[in-house]
Amino acid sequence: MVEDRLACRECHHVNDPDAQTCALCGSSSLTEDWAGYVIITKPADSQIAEEMNVSEAGAYALKVR
Fold it and tell me: What residues make up the domain containing 60?
């Protein structure tokens, strides 16, 4: 489930619950304390991706604490 996953504090990418590092940026700063969920499929055409500074397709947390 999405609630069990870990979000990266650096890039907000949502990772598997057993991840030790972020699959996107490699950071080890992962947290269970996040809210909101967005899936970006075409970052080049997405205003949300532009606001979040996202250049790779994937699942992202909107708020990471």
Answer: 6-64
d(CA 8, CA 52): 13
Judge whether 18 lies within some domain. Answer: yes
Taking only the tens place, the pLDDT of each residue in 13-32 is 999 999 999 999 999 999 99
pTM, whole model, 2 decimals?
0.90
* Residue 25, annotated as binding a ligand: yes
Count of structural domains within the chain: 1
Residues 31, 37, 41, CA angle at the centre, nearest 5°?
Answer: 115
| Dihedral sign for Cα atoms in the order 33, 43, 10, 30 | positive
Q: Establish whether 8 is an annotated binding residue.
A: yes
